[in-house]
Amino acid sequence: MSSHGNDNEARSEPPGPAATTPRPPDADTARDPGDAPPAAGRDAARIVAVRRFAAAARRWRGLRVTGCAVLLAVALSAGAVAVGGAREGAGAVPGAAPAGRPGAVRDAAGTDVGIPALEARLRAQPRDFEGWAALGLAHVELARTDGDPSRYPRAERALKRSEELKPGNDQALSGRAALAAARHDFATALAYADRALAANPYNERALCSRVDVLVELGRYDDAARAADTADTRRPGVPVFTRYAYVRELRGETDTARKVLERALAAASSPADVAYVATQLGHLARRQGDRPAALRHYARALAADDAYLPALEGRARARAASGDRDGAVGDLERVVARAPLPGPLVALGELYEVRGDQAKAREQYTLVDAWTALARAGGVEADLDTALAAADHGDRKAALRAARAEWDRRRTVHTANAVAWALHVNGRDREALPYARRAVATGYRDATFLYHLGVIERAVGRHGDARRHLSAALGLDPGFSPLGAREARRALKELEADR
Predict the structure, then answer these.
(1) Is the dihedral of CA 289, 291, 296, 300 positive or negative?
(2) Which residues, including other chains, have CB under 8 Å from residue 135's CB and lie 6 or more apart?
(3) pLDDT tens digit string along 197-225?
(4) pLDDT in tens, 144-201
(5) pTM for this structure?
(6) Residue 304: closest CA among 272, 274, 331
(7) Residue 131 belongs to what H/E stretch?
(8) Using an 8 Å Cβ cutoff, are 4 and 213 in contact?
(9) Burial group, residue 463, by CB count within 10 angstroms (0-12, 13-18, 19+)
(10) Gap between the Cα atoms of 58 and 363, Å rounded
């Protein structure tokens, strides 16, 4: 890594020739800044909306998932769209590489003014191709913040308009890469990132997207080379965090930590401090250092007290430390603003542990609804479906989804998903090679180790099972409220059988 200072084959082509007649922003894209509720009322609006959705889902037990998606869309429009501040999509796909710095649609004070300001600019200058590209990217970033995939078609229209005004401009192409990655169409994302870099080798967004997408495709050696290139061309916080994540995936945790510490020292804005400190918190938590994780999350929240990834990370660290009430409180704040699968499942499991089955079911219903809404927005949501359904839904559907994701990309995360889906369907001998592959790079994740240990126990490899279950609990005793409880129970039984 340089001292100054994180994946997809071509498949689609950009739109055709440029339009000749200027036009104002689309009616469904434009929004009067005054329409947003006051900051103090935004979280309250979201909480009311999500609770209203959950209540409807309880009343209509026979509600189809498509109906749930409609209700969730209403919940999102009531609260999520008004929420200030885009941040990166670390929570969008469990285990996904951090994909960019937060604050893409915020001003220096942290106010959600980006999209309205861009829309006002485009009303005054409708042929501003850079403004259209920025608007498209802002919609992508905000969708990954608030969990509202209905923003993706708006992003696509804005990016298309930018390309119509100036075909082949690198800003629109890099925006296309970010949009395709957000939809989990990683092959197309790589193609657009490569085209953007052919037009401008120093485009930071394209350099970062290329690393992200190579990671998501499981091409870790290529991702490492892409991170080196990005560090040479555009060293800075967005590149440093990706460089660190690639190193962590390869088991180089000390290097990852040093790089993130350097990035934190270089961070100048509250958004960058919150983002990098959160990544340090995640790294510390994944290595079992909960006190350090909590310190990093505290620093992130001191910079931005509403930064959702830090709240979610602190919740998981609190759960691991035995502070379940604190963990529930943090996760309730997170899902009130961004009802995404990871925090919804974590909150549901915490409710289950304390005996509140009705509240737990509400969270799992919201996961199903989010998945349907994501697919309606063009997102390939099979990994989310597989991970949630394996433990809290249709096990056969979980296996179908995991296999579909494996056909698209072969990462440590999809290997883990296939292994667990096979296990819950009683196919442990098939599951074992996938579970081993999930830990083969050196990446240490307590859930992966737990899944491996459970599968090893099922196939009679009791010594290996004891080792991996112990490692999972030693690394993160709160990796999953239900999973950790099962890991302790399985270890006790294995010891009794010795």
Answers:
(1) positive
(2) 25, 29, 115, 118, 119, 122, 155, 158
(3) 999 999 999 999 999 999 999 999 999 99
(4) 776 677 889 999 999 999 999 999 999 999 999 999 999 889 999 999 999 999 999 9
(5) 0.74
(6) 274
(7) helix 129-146
(8) no
(9) exposed
(10) 11
